[in-house]
Automatic annotation (TrEMBL):
It is found in: Cytoplasm, Cytosol. Homodimer. Also forms a small population of homotetramers. Residues 2-201 form the GMPS ATP-PPase domain. This is GMP synthase [glutamine-hydrolyzing]. Transmembrane segments: none annotated. Catalyzes the conversion of xanthine monophosphate (XMP) to GMP in the presence of glutamine and ATP through an adenyl-XMP intermediate. Its EC number is 6.3.5.2. Keywords: ATP-binding, Glutamine amidotransferase, GMP biosynthesis, Ligase, Nucleotide-binding, Purine biosynthesis. It catalyses: XMP + L-glutamine + ATP + H2O = GMP + L-glutamate + AMP + diphosphate + 2 H(+). GO terms for molecular function: ATP binding; GMP synthase activity. It comes from the Eukaryota. Its main location: cytoplasm. GO terms for cellular component: cytosol.
């Protein structure tokens, strides 16, 4: 009979057998549940022959790169390189407003940066042995449903987008989660000793804050949204509501609304808050916050985030709305 414990034992044995005694394994990590669980499982299977790469694309949540370093490298003992490619991504994104173009730019840059890093790791061979495998945290729903996300950045998740690595570097794919559903990945993560806070984390899209900044993406806009989002998520956690929500995030609108501060009129930006409940993200409903929680979030954002004077709450379901605004 199938248990998660027996899955772990069998999967670790399978990975060891598959990867052989010498080859090294690399894989991208994002701070999300799937890539972290896959990385931890790989570390259990091949130890230091696994090396994780995190690409900071400049549109991550506040302190994300730092937190991923603490979690993976310090807590879980995984070899990790964090590449700060934020300048490069933000330069490529400058002036871009169209959401599908944002996705394309981020997807393409990601592949370039990741490939360059993979090649660097492969060059430091010496006693370390050749890089032969690419870890992907593909889940069962991704396997059966080839188009689970709209937009080309989602192609990061599929096999074609790592085509360069697979072909040029002759890497082979290893996908330890390919038979699991999301709730099983969470259970697996817990058994592997990954903290609950990470295992329960809401999903975050590959194109990151770029698709939550509805206008042009600049460092300043990213910072405004990071601050608002950080306040929002901390207050959700403080109210004990995080695990009741499937996904929550702030969106930065490219309009200026009138406001008042002291005896002066202000023209500043608007933040929209989104929180949904959902089984599989194909349909979703807006989350019914207790009013006092929204009141506190709104007051903190307008007081603490310079450049924002108004907060709205999105009460659209999916369909007809989508979870993201872009
Ligand atoms: P929508 O907005 O389509 O979102 O209702 C459903 C789920 O998909 C995520 N999403 C993305 N994830 N790249 C991703 O990796 C993307 O381009 C993308 N677009 C949407 C969204 O966050 C939600 O969980």
């Amino acid at each position: 009979n199938w248990t998660m414990e027996s899955f772990i034992t069998k999967e670790i044995a399978r990975i060891r057998e598959l990867c052989g005694p010498k080859g090294r394994v690399i894989g991208a990590v994002s701070g999300g549940v799937d890539s972290t669980v896959a990385a931890k499982l790989m570390k259990e299977a091949v130890g230091d022959r696994f090396h994780a790469i995190m690409v900071d694309n400049g549109v991550l949540r506040m302190n994300e790169a730092k937190e991923v370093r603490e979690m993976l490298s310090e807590n879980l003992g995984i070899n990790l390189t964090v590449v700060d490619a934020s300048d490069r991504f933000l330069t490529k994104l400058s002036g871009v407003e169209d959401p599908e173009t944002k996705r394309k730019v981020i997807g393409n840059e990601f592949i370039h940066v990741f490939e360059a890093e993979a090649k660097k790791l492969a060059e430091e061979e010496g006693s370390k042995g050749p890089v032969e495998w690419l870890l992907q945290g593909t889940l069962y729903p991704d396997v059966i449903e080839s188009v689970s996300f709209r937009g080309p950045s989602a192609t990061i998740k599929t096999h074609h987008n790592v085509g360069g690595l697979l072909a040029d570097m002759k890497l082979k794919l290893v996908e330890p989660l390919r038979e699991l559903f999301k709730d099983e990945v969470r259970a697996l993560g817990r058994l592997l000793g990954i903290p609950d806070r990470l295992v329960q984390r809401h999903p975050f899209p590959g194109p990151g804050l770029a698709i939550r900044i509805l206008g042009v993406v600049t460092r300043e806009q990213v910072q405004i949204l990071q601050r608002a989002d950080d306040i929002y998520i901390s207050e959700i956690r403080a109210a004990g509501l995080y695990d009741q929500i499937a996904q929550a995030f702030a969106v930065l609108l490219p309009v200026r609304a009138v406001g008042v501060m002291g005896d002066k009129r202000t023209y500043e930006q608007v933040v929209a808050l989104r929180a949904v409940t959902s089984e599989d993200f194909m349909t979703a409903d807006w989350f019914a916050f207790p009013p006092d929680v929204l009141r506190k979030i709104s007051s903190r954002i307008t007081n603490e985030v310079k450049g924002v004077n108004r907060v709205t709450y999105d009460i659209s379901s999916k369909p007809p709305g989508t979870v993201e605004w872009l």
